[in-house]
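User: Show me a protein chain along with its predicted structure.
Assistant: Here is one chain, sequence first, then structure tokens.
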Amino acid sequence: MASLRRTLLGSALALALAAPALAQAPATAVAPPAETPKYGGTLEIATMFATLSALSWDPYDWNWKINHDGGQMYEQLIAGDLDKSVRKGGKHPFVIDAFLPPDAQRGELAEKWELVDKPLSVVFTLRKGIMFPEKPGVMKAREFVADDVVFSFDRMRGSPKNRSNIYDFVDKVEARDRHTVVFTLKEYTSDWDARTGYGFYTAIVPKEVVDAGATNWRNANGTGPFLLADFVNGNSNTYVRNPGYWDKERIGGVEHRIPFVDKMVYRTIKDEATQHAALRTAKIDILETISWKAVPELKKSAPHLQWSRRLSILGSFMAMRIDVDGPFKDVRVRRAMNMAVNKKEVIDAHYGGNAEMHAYPMYPDWSGYFEPLSAMPDSVKELYAYDPKKAKELLKQAGYPNGFSFKMQYCSCSPDQSEMAPLLAAYFEQIGVKAELQPMEYGAFLSAMTTRKHAAGYLMNSSHTSPTTSIRKSFVTGQTWNPAGFSDPAFDKRMDEVYASRDEEQRKAMLREMTRDILDKAPYVWLPTQYTYAAWWPWVKNYAGEFSAGSIRPGPIYARIWIDQDLKKKLGH
């Protein structure tokens, strides 16, 4: 196993040394001169989830990916304000998956909203004149109204798959009149804007679609910029322009109806090499996730491609189950597992320098919430330092002088995990710990965790989401996305206090302290967070690598892209 680690790392390091330097996209930029948009054409995309087909078409299923696949049809009360993007001279790159700071929000279906104290409530004033288009066999064209919001939220709250107590703070949702919705709250929660306005489970689905069968993609119908025209599992999602869409895009001081393209296709491509070939030959216009290893060759073979670089929204780690009997219940063992991994070597060789040592569970862009490793206490810093000698001593103190064996599951759908798993196993072997690797198909991998049947070691990625959610979902007792089964009543109480605080500076301080605490207790083997790349052809206009307008929802971004057909022909495509 050690020889395998040396071989894999050596090959990666050789590639890294051969690769040209790749600059990171600047955090801010001057908006380029405006071009006149053109209508028509088809936008072909392999999104950041290019290997995964749609997992559900009904938000009622509480599937995290519904906003990504259904967010073209199903809009929300709040969305990201793309006029504040770096591309337009603003400060927001719109590459983090879910979090929208207040200054990055705009009303989508809502025209305005207000948090009111007496009674404690959120009042949304809806835009007038927004229409659900006609869908033969499903519904007649009609106006979107307050009752649609009430229906959608009550339905989501009543779903048997409702998890994480997301809506427990809401007492009731009522239509005050045709265009006003009131969320009456039982208590304040600092995430009220995400949970009511732009979160993963806030899409507005009309009752007619539900009555027809919302799980059937053929019945999907919303107020969004696109209509779902076709779905081939394992191949593609095809969307067509909603001709009556209400929103506009301002370019050069002029408002234009959107979307600009006639058709948009999500391509499902499970093999990386096939993804790269599709991009290189212009069978797709955008590829949102590209490993650093592939960048030099793509730049050489397709020099016209445009590029952006971003820190992954997915934190990487191996969870060690604390909720079952075994070695990982002892914090000394968990700390030893961390010290066994040469994380600097992983960054330099496995990622070719394209990774950050410490960038999870807090995302570095979250100013005031994130603390660099240099600011951490020594007990945390030593978890990131390679020290197999101390790791062996800790194992001995914990009663495992000869090590132990455990099973480690990972998803075969992830090239990174498929390469990382044997590397970790090789590191662990050096301290006498044997990891039995168990690759799993995505559905089985996810099901194992959600049903709590996963192995003692569980190698996975998890989105940062938001400063509060990243901590809550991963480490609060009973949470689905808490694969270590970490449970500490005192920690849970502090999380409740974070949500109850209306003072953001206080919340920042509390979350910094909680992050230090959870890092120190090491329920995970903390792994580096990699940088990833996106590339697109220059005929893709009004775009600079953004991919989320809130909760992994790219629909508003793609609706604003237009295709320069003349340039595409000029470049031979």
